[in-house]
Amino acid sequence: MKHTEILWDEAKDFIDVCYQELGMESQINARLHAIKDEIDRTGSYVHTAEELEHGAKMAWRNSNRCIGRLFWQSLNVIDRRGVNTKEEVRDALFEHIEIATNGGKIKPTITIFPPEKNGEKQVEIWNHQLIRYAGYETEKGRVGDPASYELTAVCEKLGWRGKRTDFDILPLLFRMKGDGQPVWYDLPQTLVKEVPITHPDIEEFADLNLRWYGVPIIADMRLEIGGLSYNAAPFNGWYMGTEIGARNLADEKRYDMLKKAAAVMGISASLNTDLWKDQVLVELNKAVLYSYKKHGVSIVDHHTAANQFKRFEEQEQDAGRKLTGDWTWLIPPISPASTHIFHKSYDNTIVKPNYYYQDKPYQ
Ligand code: ARG
């Protein structure tokens, strides 16, 4: 099938559902005629602002791995399809961080850049998240976040130089169409809200010198709506505590803090049957939730998030839509069986619009 035929098919499916959901069924025929005509003339079509906004929301609603989907309708959609220069992209990314952070009361936000044109990316973001810590392999061992080893090396090859603390914030890194290399820009410190991790009753936790950034802004996924590919469309929600406390700071291949946390807690880390890892995980996760709350940064615990997801399931049923989900991702990494999610199964069919992984431009 020709790519314009695929595009037309995808456009039809999307416009149908989108306009029905928006109560605009009377406009479907006219809009489809216009799109058909536009595809015939130009080889593609352009979404209206309304289609773009609702499409991005639907894509969130269809994100099988996301437990936070109850709030899909509240997504703040920023339309930046008009950008032409690297400065405009940079400023739009800075603005995303500022608007989404919102002084700590995080706003789920997506910034949508121009879609691919004839398969060519207009803007190519190289960051995994807009805010992320660098990682270095040194003679003295790991520094920072091992998940960022490769990207950090790419940044340094391009002339950026990290301070080599465990929490250096990587620069923005993106490439404009026609440019051979990406450009990088350091994030202004004032833009990035970070939270030092302390524990409500175990003072020694502060000695671990842990911190994390406030807003997770995924920047490397492709948003597909009605056959158009928005390869650059960074989006964020707020953190669920376990992402930080049970994974980023705990995984052996990330910050690997469980033994060190056991040490400051004064508990022995030698007997599996003591369940010291489990004990440390609980305290570390309490510390994360407590610290974000203390610093006025939105966060949700996994029990509340699971309850919200239950409401999403009911909401979808009431709307007459089939629920899809990925059980392996929806269950939280601590106490999974204490949530309802653990005790049922989910249909992992991929429904469009959706967010997709894409190949990394480096590698
Ligand atoms: N798990 C990722 C991280 O720890 C973030 C993924 C998106 N999370 C979210 N709450 N929207 O950085």
| SS class | alpha+beta
Neighbour order of strands in the largest sheet: 1-2-13-10
Structural Rg: 22 Å
Shape: globular
Bound molecules: arginine
Head-to-tail CA distance between termini: 31 Å
Uncertain runs with pLDDT below 50, 5 residues or more?
A: none
| Fraction of helical residues | 25-40%
The biggest beta sheet reads: 4 strands, mixed
Mean pLDDT: 98
Annotation field: number of helices: 10
Fold topology:
Layout: H1 3-21, H2 28-42, H3 49-61, E1 76-79, H4 86-101, E2 109-112, E3 123-125, E4 135-138, E5 141-144, H5 149-157, E6 172-176, E7 183-185, E8 194-196, E9 211-213, E10 217-218, E11 222-225, E12 228-230, E13 235-236, E14 239-240, H6 241-248, H7 258-265, H8 276-294, E15 299-300, H9 302-318, H10 327-330, E16 354-356
Parallel strand pairs: 1-2, 14-15
Antiparallel strand pairs: 2-13, 3-6, 4-5, 6-7, 8-9, 10-13, 11-12, 11-16
The protein binds arginine.
